[in-house]
Specification:
- Strand 5, helix 5 and strand 6 form a beta-alpha-beta unit.
- This protein has two domains: 126 residues, 3-Layer(aba) Sandwich (Rossmann fold); 56 residues, Arc Repressor Mutant, subunit A (Orthogonal Bundle), CATH 1.10.10.
- The chain starts with a strand and ends with a helix.
- The protein is an alpha/beta fold and 218 residues long.
- The radius of gyration is 20 Å and the shape is elongated.
- It is 56% helix and 13% strand.
- It has a six-stranded parallel beta sheet, with helices on both faces.
């Protein structure tokens, strides 16, 4: 039997050992390596070329989301499943945007974990039901926002990226914080903010948020 090769990436050794014992009991899955942080996960995945990487989110140095993004760019054939204790919306969406094909919480039943690995190896997505509800809700929100964007009563509508920046402006985030959320340079955020102010015909960030609310963009 050809076994699915899996790499474990988690900063907690006890967690890695537990996963290894669990997966070694599954006939069609074999753990081929371990990594204790994101940078090591990328390095070991490039060397070992597993079919699937089980990636924790919070790890020292390079976190799981950033590691997933790097791995997806370097080895797109290696499928990443985020396996974490966090079901925070930001982690879910950033992980999936980074290229993960699955998102599971660490309390997932062992058989569901094995099935997720098999699905990932087949190139399919597998998202835990409790997390999937968040994804569906986010998709609905983005669809509605896209609908509003198309109907913007502006001479020059805001782009999708500008709408993302605008949403963070409404949360009171600084340019630096927005850049960190969107993984873009602070200077790029500043340019987006300038474009937003110009398109909305306002002078500052507060007025931009108020105007956007009037237009139904937030």
């Amino acid at each position: 039997m050809v076994k699915i090769r899996v790499l474990l990436a988690d900063d907690q050794q006890l967690m890695r050992e537990g996963l290894r014992v669990l997966l070694d009991l599954t006939p069609d899955i074999r753990v081929v390596g371990e990594a204790g942080d994101g940078a090591e996960a990328v390095e070991r995945a490039q060397a070992l070329r597993p079919e699937v990487v089980l990636m924790d989110v919070r790890m020292p140095g390079l976190d799981g989301v950033a590691a997933t993004r790097r791995l997806h760019e370097a080895c797109p054939e290696v499928k990443v499943i985020i396996l974490t204790t966090f079901d925070d919306d930001d982690y879910v969406f950033e992980g999936l945007r980074a290229g993960a094909v699955g998102y599971l919480l660490k309390d997932v039943p062992s058989e569901q974990l094995a099935e997720a690995i098999r699905a990932a190896a087949r190139g399919e997505a597998f998202i835990q039901p409790s997390v999937a509800r968040k994804v569906v809700a986010e998709f609905a929100r983005l669809t509605e926002r896209e609908h509003r964007r198309r109907e913007q009563p502006l001479v020059e509508p805001l782009s999708e990226r500008e709408l993302e920046v605008l949403a963070f402006l409404a949360e009171g985030l600084s340019n630096r914080e927005i850049g960190e959320r969107l993984f873009i340079a602070e200077g790029t955020v500043k340019n987006h903010v300038s474009n937003i102010l110009s398109k909305l015909g306002v002078r500052d960030r507060t007025q931009a948020v108020l105007r956007a609310q009037e237009l139904g963009l937030l």
